[in-house]
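Practice problem: predict the structure.
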Amino acid sequence: MARAATTSDVFNAIAEPRRREILVLLRTGERPVTELAEELGMTQPGASKHLRVLREVGLVRDRKAGKQRLYGLDARGLRPVHEWAGGFEQFWNESFDRLDAYVQDLTRHDKEID
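Answer:
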């Protein structure tokens, strides 16, 4: 099966660990590419390449501020990921309910032994 182009699919874009790191850094506010590159230990062209991909899928926006270009998170682009992951909420809730029931049974059993 052919893989979707990285630049057109948000899931493929965030599959790259460095891009996820960039998104985490941008959660706190806008930053220039030089600052992102330094914090990630990357070259500026490398960081720019990742930012371009993230911008193309709608996860990052940029604006010019003086001589700098600032990049910021556009969390609206994460909606498809959030909706997909939300489909597993019932699974996790049921798993936690079963774990809670198991722990209560163990606690009850320990009290009966004492």
